[in-house]
Every structure is written in structure tokens, then in C-alpha cells.
Amino acid sequence: MSENSTPHGSQDSFVARGGVWVVIQFVLMVALLLAAPMSDESIPIADVTKAIAVLMLLIGAWFGIRGVRDLGQQRTALPKPLPGGQLVTTGVYALVRHPLYASLIWLGFGWALMFGSGLALVIALLQLIFLDLKARREERWLRDHFADYPDYAARVKRFLPCVY
After folding, report:
1. 47 falls in which pLDDT band (50, 70, 90)?
2. Is the pLDDT of residue 10 over 90?
């Protein structure tokens, strides 16, 4: 067996690089997208609720667009860092360590509020918990891969600038 292989395949396999996390994330995202417009309004949709939902959607879009742009060539669909990759700590990554996950969280709650869907809010909460767990796992890989990651993590919050 080569040093780059395990009994279950290459260390660079889909599963070894965090593919199961991606599959679960995709299922949650689809469930949230479908649940909101398909469920009855269980949250009153006042104008202020719609305004908050739009603001959350805009914040989520901003985090997502900036996260993709600032990550550039270091971006991968899988949470384990690319071999030979570089740690990105500038742009939106100077505000939060996981802007793409923050984007999904803001978008999820905004989407649920837009439709007044209690079911979608529950799924958005499950997505938040899941993304926090995924980020924690990813951060272990990042610590192993980048010597300066612990210093970066001590300076920059995970999802919400100056808060969490």
C-alpha cells in the first residue's frame, strides 16, 4: 500500500476530503429551499418581517460573493484544504473565518422569513448547527495544514464579525 492510500482509498478521496459533509449540506440547502414556499405561513409576514428578510438575503449574498471572490484559486467544494494551498486572511476573510458558511446561514434565515415558514426556520436552525460543526471540523484540518491558522482563528470570529 502506498503512503498516500488507506484501506478505503486515496487520502485525497471524496470522503477523506470531507465529501460527506458536502452531501449533508446540499440536502439541508435543498430542504430549506423547498420547505419555505411549500409550507403554510406560520409566521406573520408584516412589512417589517419582509424588510428584515430582504436585509438578511442581501447580507448573505454579500458574504457569499465576497467569499468566493476573495478565496479565488484556493476555493474548493470540499472542506479539507487543497494540497499546496495558501491561507486566505484578507478581504471578507479578515471579518469572518467562514464567509461562505455565514452566507448560507444569512440566506437560510432570510429565505425562511421571506415566506413566513416555521418549518423552513427549523431547517435554517439545523443548517446553522450543521455548518458550525462542519466549520469546527474544517478548522482542525486548517490547523494541521497552516501553521499560522491558530493565530488567525484567535483574531477573527467564525461567522459573525466581533461576535461569533
Report:
1. confident
2. no
Question: Measured between alpha carbons, how far is 145 from 102 in angstroms, rounded to an integer?
Answer: 22
Looking at every residue in the chain, the average pLDDT score rounds to 91
Please return the burial class of 115, using the count of CB atoms within 10 Å of its CB with bins 0-12, 13-18 and 19+: buried
Alpha-carbon torsion 125, 20, 16, 83, what sign? negative
Provide the 3-class DSSP secondary structure of residue 51: helix
Q: Judge whether 164 lies within some domain.
A: no
State which residues form the domain around 87.
5-155
Residue 128: how many CB atoms within 10 A of its CB?
19
160 domain-assigned: no
End-to-end CA distance of the chain: 43
User: Could you tell me the CATH number of the domain that includes residue 60?
Assistant: 1.20.120.1630
Task: Assess if residue 126 is contained within a domain.
Answer: yes
Rounded to whole angstroms, the Cα distance separating 144 from 136 reads 13
In a domain, 87, yes or no: yes
Provide the sign of the torsion angle of the four alpha carbons 1, 20, 156, 62, taken in this order: positive
Number of independent structural domains in the chain: 1
